[in-house]
Design goal:
The chain is mainly β. It has one domain. 15% of the residues lie in helices and 41% in strands. It has a 7-stranded antiparallel beta sheet with strand order 1-7-12-8-9-10-11, with no helix packed on it. Strands 5-4-3-2-6 form a 5-stranded antiparallel beta sheet, with no helix packed on it. A hairpin with a 2-residue loop joins strand 4 and strand 5. It starts with 8 loop residues before the first helix and ends with a strand.
Amino acid sequence: MKLEIEIPDNIVDKFNLAVEWLLEECREPILVPDNIKIERECWHWDELGIAFNDNKQVLSYFSYNWWIYDVDGASDEEFIQCELIKCKREDLEPWDTAFRCEGDIMDKIGFIGNYYKILDDKRYAYISRNTNIVVGDNSYNNRYKVVEV
């Protein structure tokens, strides 16, 4: 004798959401490596800035545009440990600091050009060749929000 039970779709959806939540809660954090320096509270309008040019400058956000300011003699104590949290583009807001890549994240995590500041719902600014700021608007499959640990 074979017993068949029909499970309503909404229960399957709830189960799948619960499994996704558990997997996210149990994951190991993806830490921003030591060679990428993130500064907290760069200016009153920005939460996290990306240090570049041998940690002499910080890429920040101001009024839907990028902003650079000089850092006088920054030491490692001025920078904070951050982690990457997987997200969608629509989860990122102006002033957020994020990470983007195609392919395996661990192959790209130490490259400063993959860290960027969200400017608006389409544009972002990133550091190219350690000193140039580029504004982009193309899409990437893998996005992560940079958050303080």
